[in-house]
Amino acid sequence: MLSRTIRKSVLDTRIPSSALPPTFLLPNRARYFNSTTQHVETPPDNFDASQLPASETSASASGLPLSKHAQSKLAKIPSPPPPPSKPLALSKSIKELLPLLAVQPSHYISAHIHGKPYLVTPGDIVRLPFHMPGVVPGDILRLNRASAIGSRDFTLKGTPYVDERIFECRARVMGTEAEPMRIKEKTKRRNRKVKTVRSKHKYTILRIAELRVKGLEEIEQ
Protein backbone atom coordinates (compact mmCIF):
# COMPACT_ATOMS: atom_id res chain seq x y z
CA MET A 1 0.00 0.00 0.00
CA LEU A 2 2.84 2.35 0.81
CA SER A 3 4.63 1.61 -2.45
CA ARG A 4 1.48 2.43 -4.46
CA THR A 5 1.12 5.76 -2.66
CA ILE A 6 4.72 6.70 -3.38
CA ARG A 7 4.39 5.70 -7.02
CA LYS A 8 1.20 7.73 -7.42
CA SER A 9 2.79 10.83 -5.87
CA VAL A 10 5.76 10.53 -8.20
CA LEU A 11 3.49 10.30 -11.25
CA ASP A 12 1.45 13.30 -10.13
CA THR A 13 4.52 15.47 -9.64
CA ARG A 14 6.05 14.60 -13.04
CA ILE A 15 6.52 17.69 -15.22
CA PRO A 16 4.78 17.43 -18.59
CA SER A 17 6.87 17.83 -21.73
CA SER A 18 5.00 21.00 -22.73
CA ALA A 19 6.18 22.75 -19.55
CA LEU A 20 9.89 22.10 -20.24
CA PRO A 21 12.05 25.14 -21.09
CA PRO A 22 13.19 25.61 -24.70
CA THR A 23 16.21 23.72 -25.95
CA PHE A 24 18.61 26.69 -25.94
CA LEU A 25 18.03 27.13 -22.16
CA LEU A 26 18.90 23.50 -21.36
CA PRO A 27 22.44 22.43 -20.48
CA ASN A 28 24.67 20.96 -23.17
CA ARG A 29 23.95 17.33 -22.24
CA ALA A 30 20.17 17.80 -22.29
CA ARG A 31 20.42 19.75 -25.55
CA TYR A 32 22.34 16.87 -27.09
CA PHE A 33 19.67 14.30 -26.19
CA ASN A 34 16.76 16.58 -27.24
CA SER A 35 18.17 17.44 -30.67
CA THR A 36 17.68 15.42 -33.81
CA THR A 37 20.53 14.14 -35.90
CA GLN A 38 21.02 15.35 -39.48
CA HIS A 39 21.40 12.76 -42.21
CA VAL A 40 23.73 14.00 -44.94
CA GLU A 41 24.25 11.85 -47.99
CA THR A 42 27.73 11.92 -49.47
CA PRO A 43 27.85 12.51 -53.24
CA PRO A 44 29.30 9.83 -55.49
CA ASP A 45 32.94 9.91 -56.50
CA ASN A 46 32.27 10.91 -60.12
CA PHE A 47 30.02 13.88 -59.20
CA ASP A 48 31.12 17.26 -60.60
CA ALA A 49 29.33 20.30 -59.15
CA SER A 50 30.73 22.63 -61.82
CA GLN A 51 28.46 21.04 -64.43
CA LEU A 52 25.33 22.25 -62.68
CA PRO A 53 23.79 25.69 -63.50
CA ALA A 54 24.19 28.49 -61.00
CA SER A 55 20.56 28.27 -59.86
CA GLU A 56 20.75 24.52 -59.26
CA THR A 57 24.11 24.88 -57.50
CA SER A 58 22.70 27.45 -55.07
CA ALA A 59 19.61 25.33 -54.47
CA SER A 60 21.65 22.21 -53.84
CA ALA A 61 23.98 24.13 -51.54
CA SER A 62 21.04 25.29 -49.45
CA GLY A 63 19.60 21.79 -49.37
CA LEU A 64 16.30 22.81 -51.01
CA PRO A 65 15.19 20.98 -54.18
CA LEU A 66 13.94 22.99 -57.15
CA SER A 67 10.18 23.04 -57.55
CA LYS A 68 8.46 22.13 -60.80
CA HIS A 69 7.47 25.78 -61.34
CA ALA A 70 11.10 26.91 -61.01
CA GLN A 71 12.28 24.15 -63.33
CA SER A 72 9.71 25.13 -65.96
CA LYS A 73 10.79 28.78 -65.70
CA LEU A 74 14.44 27.84 -66.17
CA ALA A 75 13.54 25.72 -69.19
CA LYS A 76 11.63 28.60 -70.85
CA ILE A 77 14.50 31.10 -70.57
CA PRO A 78 16.21 31.20 -73.99
CA SER A 79 19.96 30.97 -73.86
CA PRO A 80 21.79 33.73 -75.77
CA PRO A 81 23.85 32.64 -78.77
CA PRO A 82 27.57 32.27 -78.04
CA PRO A 83 29.94 34.87 -79.47
CA PRO A 84 31.47 33.88 -82.80
CA SER A 85 34.87 32.35 -82.12
CA LYS A 86 35.31 30.02 -85.11
CA PRO A 87 36.10 31.31 -88.61
CA LEU A 88 33.01 31.96 -90.67
CA ALA A 89 32.33 29.15 -93.17
CA LEU A 90 30.09 30.14 -96.08
CA SER A 91 28.43 27.67 -98.39
CA LYS A 92 28.73 27.85 -102.15
CA SER A 93 25.23 29.25 -102.63
CA ILE A 94 25.78 32.00 -100.05
CA LYS A 95 29.07 32.99 -101.70
CA GLU A 96 27.25 33.33 -105.01
CA LEU A 97 24.15 35.17 -103.78
CA LEU A 98 25.56 37.33 -100.95
CA PRO A 99 27.21 39.86 -103.35
CA LEU A 100 23.87 40.20 -105.16
CA LEU A 101 22.10 40.83 -101.85
CA ALA A 102 24.70 43.41 -100.82
CA VAL A 103 24.46 45.30 -104.12
CA GLN A 104 20.66 45.41 -104.34
CA PRO A 105 19.28 48.42 -102.38
CA SER A 106 16.33 48.71 -100.03
CA HIS A 107 17.47 46.21 -97.41
CA TYR A 108 15.26 45.10 -94.53
CA ILE A 109 16.10 43.19 -91.37
CA SER A 110 14.16 41.25 -88.75
CA ALA A 111 16.12 42.40 -85.70
CA HIS A 112 15.56 40.91 -82.26
CA ILE A 113 15.66 43.33 -79.32
CA HIS A 114 15.25 41.73 -75.90
CA GLY A 115 13.88 38.59 -77.54
CA LYS A 116 11.19 40.34 -79.67
CA PRO A 117 11.49 40.61 -83.47
CA TYR A 118 11.11 43.95 -85.28
CA LEU A 119 10.93 44.13 -89.08
CA VAL A 120 12.63 47.44 -89.96
CA THR A 121 14.40 49.27 -92.78
CA PRO A 122 16.92 52.16 -92.59
CA GLY A 123 15.23 55.31 -91.30
CA ASP A 124 12.40 53.54 -89.49
CA ILE A 125 11.45 54.55 -85.95
CA VAL A 126 10.93 51.72 -83.47
CA ARG A 127 8.92 52.29 -80.32
CA LEU A 128 9.99 49.64 -77.84
CA PRO A 129 7.21 48.65 -75.39
CA PHE A 130 9.54 49.04 -72.40
CA HIS A 131 12.06 51.44 -70.92
CA MET A 132 15.51 50.24 -71.96
CA PRO A 133 17.85 50.60 -68.99
CA GLY A 134 21.30 52.16 -69.21
CA VAL A 135 20.80 54.26 -72.36
CA VAL A 136 20.52 58.01 -72.92
CA PRO A 137 19.38 59.96 -75.99
CA GLY A 138 22.11 60.00 -78.62
CA ASP A 139 23.57 56.56 -77.88
CA ILE A 140 24.33 54.28 -80.81
CA LEU A 141 23.28 50.65 -80.38
CA ARG A 142 24.45 47.83 -82.61
CA LEU A 143 21.74 45.28 -83.27
CA ASN A 144 23.64 42.01 -83.70
CA ARG A 145 20.70 39.57 -83.57
CA ALA A 146 18.69 39.08 -86.72
CA SER A 147 16.63 36.15 -87.93
CA ALA A 148 16.43 37.39 -91.53
CA ILE A 149 18.08 39.95 -93.82
CA GLY A 150 16.78 40.62 -97.30
CA SER A 151 16.13 42.92 -100.20
CA ARG A 152 13.54 42.90 -102.96
CA ASP A 153 14.69 39.65 -104.58
CA PHE A 154 16.91 37.92 -102.00
CA THR A 155 16.47 36.84 -98.38
CA LEU A 156 19.07 35.39 -96.04
CA LYS A 157 17.57 33.46 -93.10
CA GLY A 158 19.40 32.35 -89.96
CA THR A 159 19.22 29.19 -87.86
CA PRO A 160 17.96 30.78 -85.66
CA TYR A 161 20.11 33.92 -86.10
CA VAL A 162 22.24 35.22 -88.93
CA ASP A 163 25.94 35.47 -88.10
CA GLU A 164 26.66 39.00 -86.93
CA ARG A 165 29.82 39.19 -89.06
CA ILE A 166 27.73 39.29 -92.25
CA PHE A 167 25.86 42.56 -91.58
CA GLU A 168 25.97 45.81 -89.65
CA CYS A 169 22.84 47.33 -88.16
CA ARG A 170 22.97 50.35 -85.88
CA ALA A 171 20.18 52.27 -84.15
CA ARG A 172 20.23 55.66 -82.44
CA VAL A 173 18.38 56.25 -79.18
CA MET A 174 16.03 59.19 -79.77
CA GLY A 175 14.61 59.37 -76.26
CA THR A 176 11.82 58.05 -74.09
CA GLU A 177 8.07 58.62 -74.08
CA ALA A 178 5.44 58.09 -71.43
CA GLU A 179 1.74 57.47 -71.76
CA PRO A 180 -0.81 59.52 -69.78
CA MET A 181 -1.32 58.55 -66.17
CA ARG A 182 -3.78 55.70 -65.74
CA ILE A 183 -5.87 55.62 -62.57
CA LYS A 184 -7.87 52.52 -61.76
CA GLU A 185 -9.97 51.84 -58.68
CA LYS A 186 -10.06 48.26 -57.43
CA THR A 187 -12.81 47.12 -55.08
CA LYS A 188 -13.94 43.82 -53.63
CA ARG A 189 -17.40 42.55 -52.83
CA ARG A 190 -18.66 43.31 -49.34
CA ASN A 191 -15.60 45.44 -48.67
CA ARG A 192 -15.67 49.21 -48.14
CA LYS A 193 -12.00 49.71 -49.00
CA VAL A 194 -11.17 51.14 -52.41
CA LYS A 195 -7.64 50.64 -53.75
CA THR A 196 -6.36 53.22 -56.24
CA VAL A 197 -3.70 52.00 -58.66
CA ARG A 198 -1.69 54.46 -60.79
CA SER A 199 0.45 53.42 -63.75
CA LYS A 200 2.44 55.39 -66.31
CA HIS A 201 4.19 53.17 -68.84
CA LYS A 202 7.42 54.39 -70.47
CA TYR A 203 8.70 53.60 -73.97
CA THR A 204 12.11 53.85 -75.65
CA ILE A 205 12.32 55.34 -79.14
CA LEU A 206 14.97 54.07 -81.59
CA ARG A 207 15.76 55.14 -85.15
CA ILE A 208 17.49 52.69 -87.50
CA ALA A 209 20.50 54.69 -88.61
CA GLU A 210 22.45 52.13 -90.64
CA LEU A 211 21.86 48.75 -92.28
CA ARG A 212 24.56 47.27 -94.47
CA VAL A 213 25.36 43.82 -95.78
CA LYS A 214 29.09 43.19 -95.89
CA GLY A 215 30.90 41.93 -98.94
CA LEU A 216 32.92 38.76 -99.22
CA GLU A 217 36.18 40.71 -98.97
CA GLU A 218 35.25 42.10 -95.54
CA ILE A 219 33.93 38.77 -94.23
CA GLU A 220 36.93 36.68 -95.26
CA GLN A 221 39.46 39.04 -93.69
UniProtKB/TrEMBL annotation:
One of its GO terms (cellular component) is mitochondrial large ribosomal subunit. Residues 48-61 have a biased composition (Polar residues). The lineage of its organism: Eukaryota, Fungi, Dikarya, Ascomycota, Pezizomycotina. Pfam families: Ribosomal_L21p. Residues 38-89 are annotated as: Disordered. This is Large ribosomal subunit protein bL21m. InterPro entries: bL21-like (IPR028909), bL21-like_sf (IPR036164). Belongs to the bacterial ribosomal protein bL21 family. GO terms for molecular function: structural constituent of ribosome.
